[in-house]
Amino acid sequence: MSMTATQASKTTSKSSRVLRSIGFVAMPLLVIGWSLIDLSLGRELVEWIPYLASGFSMNILITICAVTLGTTAGVLLGLMQLAPYWFVRLPAQVYVQIFRNAPALVLIFATTYIFPFEVVLFGNYLPFPDWVKAVIGLAILSSAYIAEITRGAVLSIPTTQWEATKGLGFSRLQALRYVILPQCVRRSLPPWMNVASSMAMGTSLASLVGVHELMHAATDASTAVRRLDFTIIAYVVVMAAFFTLCYPIARLTRRLERRFNTG
Amino acid sequence: MTASPETETNTAIVKLEDVHLSFGQTQVLKGIDLTIYKGDAFSIIGPSGSGKSTILRCINALVTPQSGKITVAGTRVDQLTKESERIQLRKRVGIVFQQYNLFPHLTVLDNIVLAPTKILGADKTATVKLARELLEKVRLSEKADAYPGQLSGGQQQRVAIARALAMKPELVLFDEVTSALDPETVGEVLWVIRDLIRDGMTSILVTHEMRFAEEISDTVVFTENGRIVDHGSPQQIFHTADNPRIRQFVGGLSGGGRGAVRDGEGI
Fold this sequence. Notes:
Chain B: It holds the Pfam family ABC_tran. The complex is a heterodimer of chains A (263) and B (267). Chain A has 263 residues and is mainly alpha-helical. Chain A has one domain: Orthogonal Bundle (MetI-like fold), CATH 1.10.3720.10. Chain A has helices at 5-10, 13-37, 39-81, 86-100, 104-114, 130-156, 159-167, 172-202, 214-225, 228-261, and strands spanning 118-121, 124-127. The radius of gyration of chain A is 22 Å and the shape is flat. By secondary structure, chain B is α/β, with parallel strands linked by helices. In chain B, the strands form two sheets. Chain B has a six-stranded mixed beta sheet with strand order 6-7-8-3-9-10, with helices on both faces. In chain B, strands 2-1-4-5 form a four-stranded antiparallel beta sheet. The radius of gyration of chain B is 18 Å and the shape is globular. Classes of the chains: A mainly alpha (263), B alpha/beta (267).
């Protein structure tokens, strides 16, 4: 987790300005300045940028898929944990407890080696690419986190809200749908943002199972060029790229929070 | 307002017979008998912990007694076994709580419109029109687009009353609706309830507002320790009660500051 929920919401506009200037100004300036001072370095970098970019697009793809999948499954699992029937509650609780405590890398390795490299569907051999396995690994982890976030948010709604819906003739599901969950969205946004940016950063782990993403591309590039200054600058580019991926998630969440706070 | 003869001859809308209820080892109701007629204003008074609120919760099936008969608008509430049957009952019986319990994420108007449209399946335009009429009735027309957090306690409680009325209930239960309010806003809520009773809405009030109960009720019951100690007209309970416990309770409360503030407002 990059920062806790309370820290995230307390972050002032001043500190976010500092952050922005490091991420969007200082790091690119370092890369550009260094490239201009040593033009041979600059030339290498320009040559490798498309390759790095193709890797980065994979990080974006994995992040979007893992967070979408993880959020959907997580909300369902969170609600299952609160179900009145034990046969619904228990499997969800077991799932969450097991996967919430598993390191991301372990899950990515597990999904990579457990799932086959291709699947047979109606007699056709369909490839099962490694990046999809990384998505599943990260989605399992984020769904366990988000299940806990959802469960906590629902429990944090005062029981008097449930009482009010009961008094008006709502069923349990109707109360959840119209009254409880809408109030949970606002409460879960800051922790959800933490999970989303953790997953964005966790995509770099996919390089270890051979997925062609940014870390993998940077390692390829530095091995091919064999220059220490290029290696340093390549990883600065990686850092700047991850910043541009995670920072908008934080900004978007802050904006949504403000919008909901008018309520 | 006193009980008129024709309401007495009317049919009973709520009837409790020998209702016993306990939470675990604690006996809360120890044989409650009540009859409430259509169009009546019925007040339940008594010390805290005497089971007043529990009686209301029995009537709209939020709690189920261990024994006894409860009949509400032709439904045997004590025999309802399925949650769906209890929900059907609650759609016909409005309840207003001490803590208002408005939905904080919705505007005042949406708070009122939500249940009729989503639960009863009522037409949206007609319900919005009804909601605006009800807001006018509780004198909050200008607050339709405000959020509950922007309203005072008294205003929130009036919205809660409008929300309950939007379901077009056959009777309304008021559970200590002014207990969480500051003395200055109590009056505006009582004003709304008084209006409602004048319009003929069957109302059951659990209240600590003795003067109000005396003024608007057709029947008053005094409960203590899960039993009904006495029941009768306001005159009987507040002025000519034989029971020294009731005289002590009523005497001790009616001299309080709250009544003075309300009277000062001339309501």
